[in-house]
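Private note to self, pasted from the team thread so I don't lose it. Backbone tokens:
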């Protein structure tokens, strides 16, 4: 496209004039990002024709989003989450071969390291929720077991809160654990069935949800990061079948392939292997890693 002189700035030429101003950017990726951003932003403004008061409101909103951020809270990521942008970036960056476990958002509650725990350990230190076993295999996409794979797990309790949200109520590192799969690539642990919960909604993102008639809830889930040498790690969740909000997760994180039932198992031998009373609740979730 031929350059438009900056003195020819009109409603029609604005995007081109500003895009041209980035013509000297030596980093080609940065130039592409800025030109595309300007084109989409100007198209948006031309489309909605904001009043000056509306534009100021938008600036004030983003200022509030910035002010809501601190060492433990990232309101910009939350905004990206509720706009579906986090899941879109995730989808673009984690295209998986058929059969590999799909990824979903990391979320803000992996802020502390999960403590290494023995297979079979009970991570529900506060015992708040219906006890259950989480178990599965870690495999490569071709079906090969991955002994020594790591399974990092964290979740909310049966009341819908993470340990870091209730430091005075829950024990430190409650409902967190880093497990190492056995020689057959199996992992298992004792926990509780988590509850659905609202994302932090006492800030500007919560106001945006309220103003647009959206709820702030996520369906019940357990976060999992699966990793093994020579394979791409996967950041994902296992979602509890039947949970409220499975069809309307406020951060759009649900994928059908990640939903699992909580079954009741009557098998004394297996109960003894897991160190639980028979019968017991079980969520089975295999983690399949792409190479
Ligand atoms: C979570 O699942 O922990 C989460 C994800 C995105 C935003 C807020 C919470
Ligand atoms: Fe979560």
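Design output:
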């Amino acid at each position: 496209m031929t350059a438009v002189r900056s003195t020819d700035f009109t409603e029609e030429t604005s995007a081109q004039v500003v895009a041209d101003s980035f013509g000297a950017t030596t980093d080609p990726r940065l130039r592409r990002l800025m030109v595309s951003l300007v084109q989409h932003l100007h198209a948006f403004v031309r489309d909605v024709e904001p009043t000056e008061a509306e534009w100021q409101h938008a600036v004030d909103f983003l200022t509030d989003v910035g002010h809501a951020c601190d060492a433990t809270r990232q309101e910009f990521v939350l905004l990206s989450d509720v706009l579906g942008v986090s899941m879109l970036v995730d989808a673009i960056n984690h295209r998986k071969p058929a059969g590999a476990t799909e990824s979903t958002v990391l979320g803000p509650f992996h802020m502390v390291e999960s403590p290494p725990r023995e297979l079979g350990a009970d991570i529900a230190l506060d015992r708040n929720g219906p006890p259950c076993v989480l178990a599965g295999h870690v495999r490569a996409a071709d079906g090969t077991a991955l002994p020594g794979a790591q399974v990092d797990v964290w979740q909310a309790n049966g009341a819908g809160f993470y340990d870091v949200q209730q430091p005075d109520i829950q024990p430190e590192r409650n409902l967190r654990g880093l497990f190492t799969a056995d020689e057959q690539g199996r992992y298992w642990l004792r926990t509780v069935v988590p509850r659905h919960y609202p994302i932090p909604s006492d800030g500007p993102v919560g106001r945006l949800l309220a103003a647009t008639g959206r709820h702030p809830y996520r369906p019940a889930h357990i976060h999992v990061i699966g990793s093994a040498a020579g394979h791409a790690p996967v950041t994902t969740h296992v979602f509890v079948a039947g949970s409220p909000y499975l069809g309307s997760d406020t951060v759009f994180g649900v994928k059908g392939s990640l939903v699992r039932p909580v079954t009741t198992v009557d098998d004394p031998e297996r109960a003894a292997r897991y160190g639980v009373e028979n019968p017991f609740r079980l969520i089975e979730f295999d983690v399949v890693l792409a190479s």
